[in-house]
Design goal:
The chain is α/β, with parallel strands linked by helices and about 120 residues long. The chain is about 45% helix and about 20% strand. It has five helices and five strands, in the order βαβαβαβαβα.
Length: about 120
């Protein structure tokens, strides 16, 4: 069986490394990207099964990337799960409007992160 590929886009390298370690331990193939720009290049290269995306990043933010992914036929079906410190109702609503499949607030539990990724994998 093919292992699922997850892309974690976060400008906080420690957070990206933590997500990578947790998910690799759970059996996923994980790539990380430190910016929206690098994330877009990586998505085009690897076509991940799930994208984990921070909201607050320099330049283009996570909401804008999520909207762009939804508008592109080649990426529209890739589930995007926001992993962010923003936990307000307005933030969740904005993520939903942008087309997010899921939403996790930092700090997250390792088991919760793995479960959320698994929830969005194709059956």
């Amino acid at each position: 069986m093919r292992r699922a590929v997850v892309l974690a886009i976060d400008d906080d390298l420690e957070m990206a490394g933590l997500m990578e370690m947790v998910l690799e331990t759970a059996g996923f193939i994980v790539e990380t990207a430190p910016s929206v720009f690098e994330g877009m290049k990586t998505i085009a290269r690897i076509q991940p099964d799930v994208v984990l995306l921070d909201i607050m990043m320099p330049g283009v933010n996570g909401w804008q990337l999520c909207e762009a992914l939804r508008e592109n036929a080649s990426t529209a079906a890739i589930p995007v799960v926001f992993v962010t410190a923003l936990g307000g109702a307005h933030d969740r609503e904005t993520a939903e409007k942008a087309g997010a499949a899921g939403y996790i607030t930092k700090p997250f539990s390792n088991d919760g992160l793995v479960a959320e990724v698994r929830r969005h994998l194709p059956r």
